[in-house]
Amino acid sequence: MPIRPENRWLYPIDWQQLSDAIRFERAGSRCEKSRRPHLRPVVHLGDGRWWWDAEVGYWRSDRGCRISAKGFTLASLRSTYVVLACAHLDHDPGNNDPANLAALCQRCHMIQDAAEHRWERWWNVFRLRALRDLYEDPRITRERIMRPQ
Question: What is the top-level taxon of the source organism (predicted)?
């Protein structure tokens, strides 16, 4: 995932080399949780939990384990282009210990960061409401603004 410009200063200067070492040398260009390959389209069943590993010729689960998938229609198959990212497992960009870094595909990275994203959404709503409270007159309701008397 791209680093936001306002967060760039949190990462070390050699972040690209560190990220490449984790994604390509340690993980072998595959997601460390689901085993999805980097820069390849992957066929999966709609929700992304089961996916077809074309290199070995069988279905895998979202944890990378071999499974037998039965009872689905070909119409439910979708394809996703996989891109690996180097993720901080504790969400601290300053902690660049190799044990804290993992090579994750988009799906695994979003699952890993889900709680952090929920918190950021809550914080943004809270912040906007607080700003509105500073600048709006509490005696005026939105209905009075829309229909002046």
Answer: Bacteria
